[in-house]
């Protein structure tokens, strides 16, 4: 038995040397490995089967170690783990990112620690997760119904809902004027996901389509704006209108999204005086399409 263990270690060591990882031996054979950085301070090993993927990282530090996966190659949205070893005890948690901001602890811990240690090289963490954790299917928005305060139908002009990434939770339940009172911390929030206007009815998604809400990489903050029309300057109007959003936990094969096209109507959109007709033209350049990752789908 002792001889077999020695032979195994020699084979693993030779494998590590052949791949440029001198002095670093993983805890078991792995099918794949790579050097993540340029100076060999972050080494990654991994393997898969039909249901799970296992990673092992060797990082030249005795501090904390971070590791993440994203489908766009960027810092967010990403599924992230952070771990470290202190006094022989390994600390390890599953996080996610939604912006260039500190990661947030996942409600569902889908990564599981298999091994952790500190050695002469640095810190070793070995962990596993399912190939499909179903993080994106926690809830699906399938129906949006306008709820207008009786008698205010002529005043409630339109309602929009924005989802906000990287917004400080302190802005939860903050009220503001839509045009000249937006708090500075909420100004980056312009990702519209629901739009209703006067005359509109309940909107139903097709049976095979849903809109992700509450998944690990979905935003935590949503803003509802109600815009009013009061040409007669009527006073004493009290309104409690809003939207009833129906969610389901049943997975739907296609996920919806929203794209806005056209010219933004604001103070920069000027119509010359005495014009009998005026045409506004808007263009969507290829850079815009590339930015929203729609080129492949189009």
TrEMBL record:
Residues 40-151 form the DOMON domain. One of its GO terms (biological process) is octopamine biosynthetic process. GO terms for molecular function: copper ion binding; dopamine beta-monooxygenase activity. The keyword Signal applies. It holds the Pfam family DOMON. Keywords: Signal. The keyword Zinc does not apply. One of its GO terms (cellular component) is extracellular space. InterPro entries: Cu2_ascorb_mOase_N_sf, DBH-like, DOH_DOMON, DOMON_domain, PHM/PNGase_F_dom_sf. Residues 1-20 form the signal peptide. This is DOMON domain-containing protein. It comes from Potamilus streckersoni. The lineage of its organism: Eukaryota, Metazoa, Spiralia, Lophotrochozoa, Mollusca.
């Amino acid at each position: 038995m002792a001889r077999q263990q020695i032979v195994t270690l020699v084979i693993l060591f030779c494998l590590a040397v052949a791949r440029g990882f001198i002095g670093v031996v993983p805890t078991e054979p792995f099918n794949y490995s790579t050097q993540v950085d340029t100076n060999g301070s972050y080494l990654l090993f991994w393997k898969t089967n039909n249901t799970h993927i296992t990673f092992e990282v060797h990082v030249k530090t005795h501090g904390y170690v971070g590791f993440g996966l994203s489908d766009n190659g960027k810092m967010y949205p990403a599924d992230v783990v952070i771990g470290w070893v202190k006094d022989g005890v390994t600390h390890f948690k599953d996080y996610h990112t939604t912006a260039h901001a500190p990661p947030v602890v996942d409600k569902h811990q889908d990564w599981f620690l298999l091994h952790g240690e500190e050695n002469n090289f640095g810190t070793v963490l070995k962990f596993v997760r399912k190939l499909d954790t179903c993080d994106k299917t926690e809830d699906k928005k399938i129906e949006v119904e306008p709820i207008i305060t009786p008698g205010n139908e002529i005043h409630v002009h339109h309602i929009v809902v924005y989802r906000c990434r990287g917004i400080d939770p302190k802005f939860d339940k903050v009220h503001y004027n839509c045009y000249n009172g937006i708090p500075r911390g909420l100004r980056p929030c312009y990702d519209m996901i629901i739009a209703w206007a006067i005359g509109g009815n309940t909107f139903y998604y097709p049976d095979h389509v849903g809109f992700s809400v509450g998944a690990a990489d979905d935003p935590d903050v949503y803003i509802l704006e109600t815009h009013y029309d009061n040409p007669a300057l009527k006073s004493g109007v009290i309104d409690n209108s809003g939207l009833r959003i129906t969610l389901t936990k049943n997975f739907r094969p296609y996920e919806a999204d929203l794209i806005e096209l056209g010219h933004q109507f604001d103070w920069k959109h000027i119509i010359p005086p005495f014009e009998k007709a005026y045409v506004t033209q808007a263009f969507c350049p290829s850079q815009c399409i590339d930015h929203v990752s729609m080129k492949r789908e189009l």
